[in-house]
Write a structure and sequence with these properties.
By secondary structure, this protein is an alpha+beta fold. The chain contains three helices and six strands; from the N terminus they run βββββααβα. Strands 1-3-4 form a three-stranded antiparallel sheet. A three-stranded antiparallel sheet has the order 2-5-6, with no helix packed on it. Strand 3 and strand 4 form a beta hairpin. The longest helix has 12 residues.
Length: 92
Protein backbone atom coordinates (compact mmCIF):
# COMPACT_ATOMS: atom_id res chain seq x y z
CA UNK A 1 0.00 0.00 0.00
CA UNK A 2 1.47 3.35 -1.05
CA UNK A 3 -1.52 5.68 -0.50
CA UNK A 4 -4.71 5.73 1.58
CA UNK A 5 -7.71 8.04 1.26
CA UNK A 6 -9.63 8.15 4.55
CA UNK A 7 -13.15 9.40 5.29
CA UNK A 8 -13.77 12.43 7.48
CA UNK A 9 -14.48 11.92 11.18
CA UNK A 10 -18.21 12.38 11.66
CA UNK A 11 -19.15 11.11 8.21
CA UNK A 12 -21.86 8.45 7.88
CA UNK A 13 -21.03 5.25 6.04
CA UNK A 14 -23.32 2.44 4.94
CA UNK A 15 -22.56 -1.26 5.16
CA UNK A 16 -21.20 -2.58 1.88
CA UNK A 17 -20.54 0.86 0.37
CA UNK A 18 -17.15 2.42 -0.39
CA UNK A 19 -15.80 4.78 2.27
CA UNK A 20 -12.18 5.27 1.18
CA UNK A 21 -9.44 4.17 -1.19
CA UNK A 22 -6.17 2.26 -0.99
CA UNK A 23 -3.56 2.41 -3.71
CA UNK A 24 -0.77 -0.04 -4.34
CA UNK A 25 1.99 0.20 -6.91
CA UNK A 26 -0.19 -1.62 -9.45
CA UNK A 27 -3.82 -0.78 -8.60
CA UNK A 28 -6.34 1.41 -6.81
CA UNK A 29 -9.13 -0.22 -4.80
CA UNK A 30 -12.12 1.02 -2.87
CA UNK A 31 -12.46 0.25 0.83
CA UNK A 32 -15.90 -1.18 1.61
CA UNK A 33 -17.59 -0.68 4.97
CA UNK A 34 -18.12 -3.92 6.89
CA UNK A 35 -20.81 -2.16 8.95
CA UNK A 36 -22.70 1.09 8.76
CA UNK A 37 -22.51 3.99 11.16
CA UNK A 38 -20.65 7.15 12.06
CA UNK A 39 -16.88 7.40 11.63
CA UNK A 40 -15.58 8.34 15.07
CA UNK A 41 -11.85 8.03 14.42
CA UNK A 42 -9.45 7.61 11.49
CA UNK A 43 -5.83 6.48 11.60
CA UNK A 44 -4.04 9.65 10.52
CA UNK A 45 -0.70 7.80 10.71
CA UNK A 46 -1.65 6.07 7.45
CA UNK A 47 -1.42 9.38 5.59
CA UNK A 48 2.37 9.33 5.97
CA UNK A 49 2.88 5.57 6.49
CA UNK A 50 0.22 3.69 4.51
CA UNK A 51 2.39 0.57 4.50
CA UNK A 52 1.30 -0.02 8.11
CA UNK A 53 -1.83 -1.64 6.65
CA UNK A 54 0.38 -4.42 5.25
CA UNK A 55 2.93 -4.55 8.05
CA UNK A 56 0.67 -4.41 11.12
CA UNK A 57 -3.02 -4.54 10.12
CA UNK A 58 -4.20 -5.54 13.61
CA UNK A 59 -2.02 -3.05 15.49
CA UNK A 60 -0.79 0.16 13.81
CA UNK A 61 -2.51 -0.46 10.46
CA UNK A 62 -6.14 -0.02 11.53
CA UNK A 63 -8.12 2.29 9.23
CA UNK A 64 -11.26 3.63 10.95
CA UNK A 65 -13.37 3.24 14.06
CA UNK A 66 -17.11 3.18 13.46
CA UNK A 67 -19.95 3.82 15.88
CA UNK A 68 -22.48 1.21 14.77
CA UNK A 69 -25.90 2.34 13.64
CA UNK A 70 -27.30 -1.21 13.62
CA UNK A 71 -25.70 -3.93 15.75
CA UNK A 72 -27.52 -6.64 13.74
CA UNK A 73 -25.06 -5.94 10.90
CA UNK A 74 -22.39 -7.66 12.99
CA UNK A 75 -24.19 -10.98 12.41
CA UNK A 76 -23.22 -10.89 8.73
CA UNK A 77 -19.46 -10.61 9.44
CA UNK A 78 -16.97 -13.47 9.45
CA UNK A 79 -14.56 -14.17 12.27
CA UNK A 80 -10.85 -14.47 11.43
CA UNK A 81 -10.94 -18.25 10.97
CA UNK A 82 -13.97 -18.17 8.66
CA UNK A 83 -12.43 -15.33 6.65
CA UNK A 84 -9.14 -17.21 6.23
CA UNK A 85 -11.04 -20.32 5.12
CA UNK A 86 -13.02 -18.29 2.57
CA UNK A 87 -9.83 -16.77 1.17
CA UNK A 88 -8.21 -20.21 0.99
CA UNK A 89 -11.21 -21.60 -0.91
CA UNK A 90 -11.19 -18.68 -3.37
CA UNK A 91 -7.51 -19.24 -4.12
CA UNK A 92 -8.09 -22.90 -5.08
Amino acid sequence: IVFVELPEVGSQIDQGNPFGVVESVKTVSDLYAPVGGKVISVNKALETSPEKINNAPYEEGWIVEIELSNEKELESLLDADAYNEQCKNEME
